[in-house]
Design goal:
CATH topology of the largest domain: 60s Ribosomal Protein L30, Chain: A
CATH class of the largest domain: Alpha Beta
Shape: globular
CATH superfamily of the largest domain: D-3-phosphoglycerate dehydrogenase, domain 3
Number of domains: 2
Order of helices and strands: HHEHHHEEEEEEHEEHE
InterPro entries: ACT-like_dom_sf, ACT_dom, ASB_dom_sf, Fe-S_L-Ser, Fe-S_L-Ser_bsu, Ser_deHydtase_bsu
Distance between the termini: 33 Å
Family: Belongs to the iron-sulfur dependent L-serine dehydratase family.
Number of strands: 10
Number of helices: 7
Oligomer: single chain
Helix content: 25-40%
Mean pLDDT: 84
Cofactor: [4Fe-4S] cluster
CATH architecture of the largest domain: 2-Layer Sandwich
Pfam families: ACT, SDH_beta
Strand content: 25-35%
Largest sheet: 6 strands, mixed
Radius of gyration: 17 Å
Keywords: 4Fe-4S, Gluconeogenesis, Iron, Iron-sulfur, Lyase, Metal-binding
Structural class: alpha+beta
Length: about 220
């Protein structure tokens, strides 16, 4: 008989969260929070395109409140998650839900397009079960981020030398880069780096934040 392997007890019982579904609620909240981190600030408005299962049940399963809660920086177990739509309205964030009928790479898929002061960011995420997620598209670039490995997400001014400064800090601290994605809005505007490393390195965040022209640094493991 084939043996099932689990990384932790949470792969069996699921994550701590506000219900009712780990895929539709916990995973959705994580997607929203990661996308907020990539954007670097609260958007003025966001278009949320929902596919397949997300499109069919997003209201009944709380996917809508979870995605918006994540965009507000909430975790899946945040006590205010259920009020996220009201809080978003109070914070001046306009949210548009757009269910789509076409097929997607995964039944629990969402594409968010965030807007603020002329800035636009497009990110596609998938909730793959048990609260786990993948980010599969960033500004039109196909990427594959499981967010299950230590990951840095930085937003910085697009100036010469920023990539070298960041990778030098990682090298000095003995952090080995597994994958690295770099994109920018346009020349001289805000740029994004998503860096997966082999071992947990939370202590590097403060060094990265101290760099000139660095706006935000977020770390996930």
């Amino acid at each position: 008989m084939e043996q099932l392997k689990y990384r932790s007890v949470f792969d069996i019982i699921g994550p701590v969260m506000v219900g009712p579904s780990s895929s539709h609620t916990a995973g959705a909240a994580r997607i929203g929070k990661v996308i907020r981190s990539i954007f670097g600030e609260q958007p003025d408005s966001v278009d949320i395109y929902l596919y397949e299962s997300f499109a069919k049940t997003y209201r009944g399963h709380g996917t809508d409140i979870a995605l918006v809660g994540g965009l507000l920086g909430m975790d899946p177990d945040d006590e205010h998650l259920a009020d996220s739509l009201k809080i978003a309205y109070e914070h001046g964030m306009e949210v548009y839900f757009i269910p789509k009928s076409e097929k997607a790479e995964h039944p629990n898929s969402v594409k968010m397009i965030l807007h603020k002061d002329g800035r636009t960011l497009s990110v596609t995420g998938k909730s793959i079960g048990g609260g786990n997620i993948q980010i599969s598209e960033l500004n039109g670039f196909k990427i594959s981020l499981s967010m299950g490995t230590p990951t840095f997400i930085t937003v910085h001014q697009d100036v010469p030398g920023m990539i070298a400064k960041v990778t030098n800090i990682l090298s000095e601290r003995g952090a080995n880069i597994g994958t690295m994605t770099v994109t920018r809005e346009s020349k001289g505007e805000k740029a994004i780096m998503i860096i997966e490393v082999d071992e947990p390195q939370p202590g590097i965040c403060e060094q990265l934040k101290a760099l000139d022209y660095m706006y935000t640094v977020n770390y996930f493991d």
